[in-house]
Amino acid sequence: MAYPLQALRTFVEVGGRGSVKAAAQALHVTPGAVSQQIRLLEDRLGVVLLTRERMGMRLTAAGASFHNKLLDAFRQIDQAVEALEASKGRRTLTISTVATFAASWLVPRLGRFKQLHPDIEIRVEATSELVDLHRDRVDIALRHGLGDYPGLDVVPLMAPVLIPVASSEFLHEHQAVIREVQDCLNYPLLHDADRADWPLWLKAHGGEADERADRGSAFEDDFLLIRAAEAGQGLALVPQAYAQNEIAAGRLVQVLDKPWPARFAYYAVTRPGAADRSEVRLFMEWMLAEAAP
């Protein structure tokens, strides 16, 4: 009896991620479609593979054994595809990172890498989802965090420096006078998602946060934060590397020369041994050289 490949792949994703929602995001389908594929597979097999718990989905004993075998099978498929591409003389790299880093730092520089290595094809996946390098067909993940990624090879890439910026229109409209860090609290502030950067920045430069440091709009993505500052909605702390073009073009103004290293850094993360491939090694070396300045 033949079994639908899509249902098998969906089961592998749900079993590995422990969540229908996470699997749906990884497969770029709806949670309802994922649930339907799992029901289809269980009906065809006549076996319960997953049980729903308060924290997500758990593999049954039969499901866990089946999942391990399928995982090995899909790995072999991936290896076969990679071998075929290699036999055709194609060298490809898939890079996964968040959209902001891709748009503001990585993509504008990729032309230089292509000039050095025109035979290597680059595919950039810009997603906020955390890819699993042991399952997903991703060669290098550029992750933003504290560098703790067990079972993977981790290379520090850069630690973003945050600077306070605003649009010139905002500064003119508010007749802003900002000479000390504490002066920033007199104006509307824009925040990152956890609203932690302004209090930490103030403390790092001898200031003191009060209730004003928590007010204002918050944004999940640095790109949105920069756009809000450009639109004159307030003062923002943004990564200097992301705002260089806006500052050079006059769309943003750095209001104080008070840089501050963010708590989280960017890391290049690969499967163990991935750098043995020449294209992975070359791309890693190029990124480190680009990040050095």
TrEMBL record:
It comes from the Bacteria. SUPFAM superfamilies: Periplasmic binding protein-like II, Winged helix' DNA-binding domain. InterPro entries: LysR-type_TF_proteobact-type, LysR_HTH_N, LysR_subst-bd, WH-like_DNA-bd_sf, WH_DNA-bd_sf. One of its GO terms (molecular function) is sequence-specific DNA binding. The keyword Transmembrane helix does not apply. GO terms for biological process: DNA-templated transcription. Keywords: DNA-binding, Transcription, Transcription regulation. Residues 1-60 form the HTH lysR-type domain. Belongs to the LysR transcriptional regulatory family. This is LysR substrate binding domain protein. The gene is gcvA10.
